[in-house]
Amino acid sequence: MKAFVMLGVLAVAVSPPDCAGDPPPPLYIDCPASQTLECENGGAVASFSPSVTGGVPGYSVSCQPPSGSVFPLGCNTGTCSASDSIGQDASCAHQVCVVDTLAPIITVKPEPVSLWAPNHEMLDFKLSHCVESVVDRCHGPLDVDAVGVISRAESDEVEDDSLVDDAVGDGHTCRDIELGGGSAARLRSERQGRGNGRVYTVHFTVTDPSGNRASAACQVQVVHDQSAPSDPAVRDACQYCEGTGCGTCPSASPACPVP
């Protein structure tokens, strides 16, 4: 409220002080603390509420992006601003970091991949033949042939059984496993005639776009015969392995020259 004081013939407008004789307090806004949230479907929902002090009550507060928004993967800066009933303004900034720390989930098909006929031919194999899905919490479904890498493949039969007594059916071949890099391999379609079928175990790792990794293994079989097609080959101990991490499993048969 303004009062007019007569000074001669001049009228001067005077702004009276408040009741305490002090100017109005300044307006302050405090942003929420920084948040770190796990990514889901490409981002994360962040909820927050800034606090306002000082000024003259009758506040207007807003944030960009507003609370409840989806923040994308990475560190994001938001701003909040406030004004009071006499037009004072204040603003602050806060950070929302969305991280991806979880490995993708691999689902392997319940039934082994089957190779037939046992004619000693090398057949192409890729991970999508035995993997049902790869799903990442942040990035969604992933193409296993694009993000998967075969580390090793094992066989429960020797590479070449020509040194085994009464061995038949194997074909006496070498290099029954060829790893092509990435998600591809070539496996020989054969098994020992007096065995219970051949089982290849393929070990692999998938990596999501954030670098998180998950590992799994799937099986490829060459059944002994198809007279009972519902009877799978029986997986025995590893006898031959190509790749890394083979441990004590032989990397070559004594009958095969070292490449």
Automatic annotation (TrEMBL):
Keywords: Repeat, Signal. Residues 1-20 form the signal peptide. It comes from the Bacteria. PROSITE patterns: HYR. Residues 21-100 form the HYR domain. This is HYR domain-containing protein. It comes from Archangium gephyra.
